[in-house]
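We modelled the chain as a single entity of 126 amino acids. Its sequence is:
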Amino acid sequence: MIVPFIFEMSTISNGLLEPHYYAEAVNMVKDKNAPMIIQEKYNLLPSENKDIELFDTNNPTVKAYFNYTSFTDEDVKKVERYIIPQTFEDYIIEEKGGINNAFISLIKERNTELEKILEEIILKII
């Protein structure tokens, strides 16, 4: 089973740097009864994100640039979404003294708190 996983720590674009990947993940699993793992900030319906241009899935410029298919609220509702809580991101940013330091630490160092969250999610999936 392929499980899309979206986790990023952005300082731009209202904190949603990868909405096109989110769109692709939704389209990949929406009709396959497959789950996805996402950050809490991505656990939104397209209709809840019209203020964020990249989430405007009907914008032809955005669709052409990122080469993705539109998805709807109903598509998202079909997908079993497992959420990495925002509290984890807030905690690691606070602990490391900023978003950039937090992101670097997650790349360079083992983080047992994230491991625990992911292990719990994976055990629910299987």
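As a brief sanity check on the tokenised model: Residues 112-125 form the longest helix (14 residues). The chain has six helices and three strands.
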